[in-house]
Amino acid sequence: MLNQTRLHPAVTRQTVARNGRTVPPVAGHPLESAIEMMGAPMSFGRNEEIFGENEPAEYLYKVMSGTVRTYKVLNDGRRQIGAFYLPGDIFGLDVGDEHTYSAEAIADSKVLVIKRSAVERLANSDHEIAHGMWTLTGRELQRVQDHVMVLIKTAQERVASFLLEMAARSRTGNEIELPMSRQDIADYLGLTIETVSRTFTQLENSAAIAVPSSRRIVLRNRAVLSRLNA
Amino acid sequence: MLNQTRLHPAVTRQTVARNGRTVPPVAGHPLESAIEMMGAPMSFGRNEEIFGENEPAEYLYKVMSGTVRTYKVLNDGRRQIGAFYLPGDIFGLDVGDEHTYSAEAIADSKVLVIKRSAVERLANSDHEIAHGMWTLTGRELQRVQDHVMVLIKTAQERVASFLLEMAARSRTGNEIELPMSRQDIADYLGLTIETVSRTFTQLENSAAIAVPSSRRIVLRNRAVLSRLNA
DNA sequence: CGACCATTTGATATGGATCAAGCGATGTGG
DNA sequence: CCACATCGCTTGATCCATATCAAATGGTCG
To answer: ∠ at Cα A85 (B158, B97), nearest 5°?
Structure first.
């Protein structure tokens, strides 16, 4: 997929996504800044695969613009989306040597790619890097555990949780721009597309949200949503 | 809960559980052996709490005998069991400084307890220990991801997955001794106790399993169960 | 404008939840 | 040692939330 691990000094780190959201070139903790420094920029088009299940987990990725979904498909075709990754998020972190899920760009996306072996080499000498890998894995664990709690809830609760999650992550106030389709949301929440759609309508009718366009949601009454968030 | 971090040379590590399953005092990788060497043995009675959600995550635990469940409760009382831990399993591994779920002994259990700060101190000097923490967290992540895939399946599929999981983990051939109640299984699988019970009956009627007693299951036809495992 | 695709809305079906009762094992007190 | 209470589990009847099947609407792009 990509051989280079070395630094790319010529690359412009600051990229601008369609909706204007992007990741500043600023360094976070050591692991983050290592990725920023050494990562190679790559672009993926809408619905393009970034890696597939069972492929060797050779790289680590950081979203710079766009959105990525990770998912698994059961043998009968049911798809479960494990997570959506927004600008700033790191994904592809598998502890084994193969990916246990696939990743695709939801919209045209730019990501920084870094070799896992390079990170692990760094981790051997730099204790902070090693700790960062652990922290990152732990955050992911936390996220999946939270997802489990969402999956046992009612449809309204799941959708409310989803909207609150997206609002919190996009930090754009009460207006959310959803980069993913209804089908993606359905597969993330373990519902059908029809149920997701109907639930949006119900929430709109109860004045909890407004839906000016299908990809744009306004949270009108967080209290109602939070109560549903259980 | 426990102050000692020092070694307990006098303690007999080899404990024998009621059903005979136990953990040999042999060391696995460095992290495992550190826990074996430095861990303090503790006993918990049936349904006794080991730690609660939001308590500081000061310790790491290894099951020596018995079984432990971890769970979260939603504000309306719904309980989701996140995992069952059998002899040999390590639990209590939270990356943040507070537990994000509670843990209870399902049956009378013996666990080794070690201070997290002690492990982290070791990890600072011993690179293998640090790597072990990461691996362990990654395994847990993998486990929760698999759990998500179970939660989107039908009742029959969930129960079949559960039985195959338990059979694989207890490594006791086709006979499984279930340490947990139907309610525990239901709360693990996101079903009701009635549905779990009915599903057992269905699987028995289709000759996939036998249920000589309610806590004892015999896998009669793994092909059928595996097909359900999707 | 017309085709296509995503989304919404409507009608009906169904898997699992809920409500309720029965059953079997285990333990306790008389 | 037996009668009875208790607890965990099973079985039965009914209900309901969400899935499924089907059609209409709307937005986008050539």
So the answer is: 75
